[in-house]
């Protein structure tokens, strides 16, 4: 039996959960920033650069993105800067005003801190993008730390990510909560034995709500408070 949202809320009140691991993009932060960036801004630049239409650029880019899914390259802005001939970090910095924290995330983090949980961001994002987003949102003040897939050597979809994360963060699987907006990543954490799993729906606030039947699902962090 998998834990429901009320079970998890209750487990967070006591000592059943000691470690709270949180994905960044789409979970704590609105994925609108990233979707807009990769699906709109990058194709625009790419179209200009190659003198092709926006539609053609987008088609070519989506194929390139897809070919690197679930690999470390996918998260590596140096790789994409080199592949696409576009300075990805500089371009992200240009639209940093679009970086937004999801509602009630700060209240949740604050409460977890009061309850003396160990709180970590566990992200596939590149270290420089993580740094940019922490600077803009100031969420770092609530965290015990952060781990990235590049540091771990594997993306979260791989079991090796979790083995290394466990070693680094010293969590116990049965006392750990992990929240993510990607079902494949949650499935990987479940395979590894992480007991408490939550799917964050509405990762991109401007997209329609997508249901997930395999995991306890929240739309808003106030459901865990
Ligand atoms: Mg995410």
CATH fold name of the largest domain: Rossmann fold
The CATH architecture of the largest domain:
3-Layer(aba) Sandwich
Total separate domains: 2
Overall shape: it is globular
Number of helices: 10
What top-tier CATH class of the largest domain fits best? Alpha Beta
Number of strands: 6
Run of helices and strands: HEHHHHHEHEHHEHEE
Bound molecules: magnesium ion
Task: Report how far the terminal alpha carbons are from each other.
Answer: 23 Å
How would you characterize this protein structure?
This protein is an alpha/beta fold and 225 residues long. Strands 3-2-1-4-5-6 form a six-stranded parallel β-sheet, with helices on both faces. Helix 2 packs across helix 3. Helix 10 (183-192) links the parallel strand 4 and strand 5 (196-200). The chain has ten helices and six strands, in the order αβαααααβαβααβαββ. It has two domains: 5-30 and 100-224, Rossmann fold (3-Layer(aba) Sandwich); 33-97, no CATH class. 46% of the residues lie in helices and 12% in strands. It binds magnesium ion (MG). Magnesium ion (MG) is lined by residues 23, 25-27, 180-182, 203. The site of magnesium ion has 8 residues, from loops.
How are the elements arranged and paired?
Layout: H1 5-13, E1 19-22, H2 32-50, H3 54-67, H4 77-84, H5 88-94, H6 105-114, E2 118-123, H7 127-137, E3 145-148, H8 149-152, H9 159-169, E4 176-180, H10 183-192, E5 196-200, E6 216-218
Parallel strand pairs: 1-2, 1-4, 2-3, 4-5, 5-6
Bound molecules: magnesium ion.
Magnesium ion binds next to loops.
């Amino acid at each position: 039996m998998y834990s429901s949202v009320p079970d998890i809320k209750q487990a967070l009140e006591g000592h059943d959960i000691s470690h709270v691991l949180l994905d960044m993009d789409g979970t704590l932060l609105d994925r609108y920033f990233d979707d807009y960036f990769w699906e709109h801004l990058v194709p625009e630049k790419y179209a200009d650069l190659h003198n092709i239409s926006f539609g053609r650029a987008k088609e070519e880019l989506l194929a390139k993105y897809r070919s690197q899914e679930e690999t470390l390259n996918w998260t590596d802005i140096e790789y994409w800067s080199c592949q696409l001939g576009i300075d990805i970090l500089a371009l992200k910095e240009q639209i940093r005003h679009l970086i937004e924290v999801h509602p009630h995330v700060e209240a949740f983090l604050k409460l977890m801190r009061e309850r003396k949980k160990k709180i970590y961001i566990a992200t596939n994002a590149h270290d420089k993008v993580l740094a940019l987003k922490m600077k803009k949102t100031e969420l770092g003040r609530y965290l015990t730390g952060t781990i990235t897939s590049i540091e771990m050597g594997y993306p979260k979809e791989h079991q090796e990510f979790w083995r290394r994360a466990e070693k680094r963060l010293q969590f116990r699987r049965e006392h750990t909560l992990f929240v993510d907006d990607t079902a494949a990543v949650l499935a990987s954490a479940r395979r590894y034995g992480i007991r408490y799993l939550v799917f964050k729906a509405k990762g991109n606030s401007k997209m329609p709500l997508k249901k997930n039947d395999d995991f306890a699902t929240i739309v808003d962090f106030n459901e865990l408070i």
